[in-house]
Structure prediction request, 470 residues.
Amino acid sequence: MKHPFFFLAGIILSVLFVIFPVFAAGGEADGGGMQNLNVGMHWAGIVCIVIFIVSYLAVLAEEYTHMRKSKPVLFGAGLMWVVIGMIAPQYGVDHHGVRDAVFHGLEEYASLMLFLLSAMTYIAALEDRNVFDVIRVKLVGSGMSFRQLFWVTGFIAFFLSPIADNLTTALVMGAVILAVGRGNGAFISIGCINVVSAANAGGAFSPFGDITTLMVWQAEKVEFFEFFVLFVPSLINFVVPAAIMTFFIPAGVKPDAPDEQVQLKYGATPIIFLGFLTIAMAVSFEQFLGLPPFIGMMTGLSFLMIASWYIQHRGSRQDKDFDIFTQVAAAEWDTLLFFFGVIFSVGGLGYLGYLELMSSSFYQGFGPGMTNIGLGFVSAIVDNIPVMFAVLTMNPDMDHFQWLLITLTTGVGGTMLSIGSAAGVALMGTARGYYTFFSHLKWTPVLIVGYAAAIAMHYSLNAHLMEVVK
Prediction:
């Protein structure tokens, strides 16, 4: 098949035809909290579902249309809420009620956006100060074999991702793979798959490692330090596939060491320290003061702003251009706006009553365990952000074990397909021609083995958490 977009579109439409009877059920649902419309098979509800499907198919077509993923979901979210505003009076909801529903979603988005904006600005500042380039050059010139570099880049990705997030980690380690594997397409392909697997696995046991874990933490479903019980299952998810793939890399073969020198720019070390201090503030503000984590992150961003002023005035002539607002502009705004579109699109479906119907059909029908494991497979096709936000909007009655399970499955489930995570999508762009949808797909059975092993380890190690109800 020439175009994976059509392959994925067929899968998504097939899944939706399976679950569409859930929407047709209509009826009353008690969602608790904000009152939903419960429109059932009303024409407006069907239109909103179609808008959501079409906008998401446009996201999957980004590689071919070159239209950024934020554009169709923003447009789709706006259309959905226009339709909702038109039919709300038929269900006894006035304009104030619709506004309350919109601002409910805005509160969710604003706290996460401010948190991510601070984190992304720190990452951009570290990139500007050559921190990641130094890591890359040292690894490239280390003299290790391809097989050793396969493991080293994987483990660095696994332990860097909980701090720097899986997307940034995949881009940094992907640059290393491309540099050392120049002329060896087979190594670049398998190395990129390993980096994506490791970055996603590492991001699953830390609130800072992935947007989904951040969402669960900020929704107060799991405490900060409780995420770390997922460390061993996440490690298993990375190590098991890597151990199988390593046999397909020739032993003892080394890449040519390039002649390249890169040094840290002025102020790099203090910024690294301030980054860790900012993370500590986000955690301690939430743990000891009851403040939302983004307050700590934004306070830390002010430290970075002051540091950038000092670097501009005390550094060399080249450092005069180090402007923190340039780093803010360098943040991944496409991702932040895509996140906005996702939250308001999924929030619109929730306000129409569909997520409550799905929750009762799946979580009550199949049980939380089977549903959470199944949603991991869904997140390999549909990005894990809308999947996790949908679960949080449904708010099923689950204990800590199940909330950790859905965090694990949506976090690592995207590894099964290259388009299932931001890390995979980003590397398909930077390693174009070497790392593709189908080069990843042929290793999907191995990655599913790692997914199953991680879930089995979670059930083995953390079963005692089933008794703790949040």
